[in-house]
Amino acid sequence: MGELSESGGSDSGSRKYLQFIGTGITLGLVSFVGYKLWNVVRKTQRAVDSLVRKSTLTESDSDKIKSAAVPVYVMCDLDVTAVPISKLRRQFRALKRAGVTGVMMDFWWSKVETEPGVYNWSIYEPVLQLAQQFELKVQAVMSFHVCGECDGDGVFVPLPEFVTNLARDQPDILFNDEFGSTSAECLSFGVDHERIFPSASGSTASRTAIEMYQEFMTSFKLHFSALMPHVIEEIQVGLGPSGELRYPSYSLSKWTFPGIGALQCYDIYLEDELRSVTGSPPPRNVVRSYNDFPDNTLFFAQDNGTIFTAEGKKFFMAYFERMYRHGEDMLSMASKVFSGSGVKLSGKISGIHWFRKHPSRASEAIAGYYCSEEFNAYGKLAELFKKYNTVFLFTCMEKKDSGEGEEAMASPELLVKETSEFVAATQCDYGGENALEFKDADSYQMILDQVDACQSRGAAFKSFTLLRLDDNLISWSHYPIFNRFVQEMSK
Q1: What are the phi and psi torsion angles at 186 (to 5°)?
Q2: Long-range contacts of range 95-100, CB-CB < 8 Å, 24 or more positions apart?
Q3: Exposure string (b/e) for 327-337, b if CB count within 10 Å is 16 or more?
Q4: What span, in angstroms and rounded, lies between the C-alpha atoms of 422 and 188?
Q5: Which of 17, 74, 156, 234 could form a disulfide with 148 if both were Cys (CB 3.0 to 4.6 A apart)?
Q6: Can you give the pTM of this predicted structure?
């Protein structure tokens, strides 16, 4: 990957960015658009040229790099079925011309299973047909969560109505915080094996949450088997809020960055499970609000916080282990469902980078990623993903430490380094995403640098998925930068 070079390669001897892209835009447009657009053109060229900068890798690192091509995918609109097919056709054509390998799209639980055990995939068929027409591969996300509680969500997609109706009567099927508030983002891990959910009409049997997820994915496989794996080549298994294997500790409706969030283990099912493991109920008065900082709490204060005591360590180990078991149940089940289909599996881990530099790593611990001197959640999750031949997808590839503000004590760069090292050690496949949308050249360059750095550590970097497909991405003012990024990733 390295830096964008004049010859089109990444060799150290040719580190200047290909100038003709920006210059060509300048000459071609000035001849017929006039002075009014001149400033816009100049901004475009400056953006392209800004990719020319020294790599963040040191000279000692550069000889370790074993760069390999990394295919680029682009995330579709969160509700891709609502996008006019004519617009998608234009966007897909531009992606194909840029050399993009494929697209990622969400298959929403509530849009498909409107009644228990009844599945209708027809709304997704035109999009898949279009992807096939343009020879774009598809990363299919099995989305068992709500859309609308994550930064950048532009639409609202609820859980299925038969689930939300049940939640009104039985709120403990959802995650609960210590303040008595439920999270509507996804079902609690505690109901994975509770037989309380309705089956198809006419059936008297009830289903567990795991059985509902299994039946959804089985139906998907049966309906789209003819497209696997030459069109649908990857299944991202929905593992929790935003599809990620974590607790919904920082829902947008309750939280503001960089608050550490709140524990999500106070529904009756998780409370009972954790009590049976630790011998005591989950702790109370952990935070005063979702927006606390670690040192504003007794639990996470760096001098004598409870998290550093034997009691605190025991609880957070149990909290992590319950999340881990959910991940294992889901990946084990998905590997059986899609066995023989030829598709690969992937799962997403959230890049919770704020307060990474604080000794407690409170934001991560509250979300389930407990890390201490003796234990590291990411290492255990890498082993889990390796066990089920699942790509370890990690977010925040575009983020720099310098862009996060001192009060957040954030380090997205340390997180990428940490996770990629564990993935390399376990020989698990690695994939990346950006955390938030961007349209600046510096973020593209950061991704290139991060991919090089991850590969230098021995991580098998299998794909990068860019968030998100819209008209700005393929606009004449931005397309040259995006196109060049895709070219560099493919080398």
Answers
A1: -165, 175
A2: 95/134, 95/136, 95/469, 95/474, 96/134, 96/135, 96/136, 97/483, 98/479, 98/482, 98/483, 98/486, 99/72, 99/483, 99/486, 99/487, 99/490, 100/72, 100/73, 100/74, 100/136, 100/486
A3: bebbbebbbeb
A4: 28
A5: 156
A6: 0.89
Amino acid code (one letter) for 1: M
Q: Interior CA angle at 387 toward 383 and 389, to 5°?
A: 110
* CATH topology classification for 59-489: TIM Barrel (3.20.20)
Active site residues: 244, 433
Angle, vertex CA 163, rays to CA 161 and CA 168, nearest 5:
95
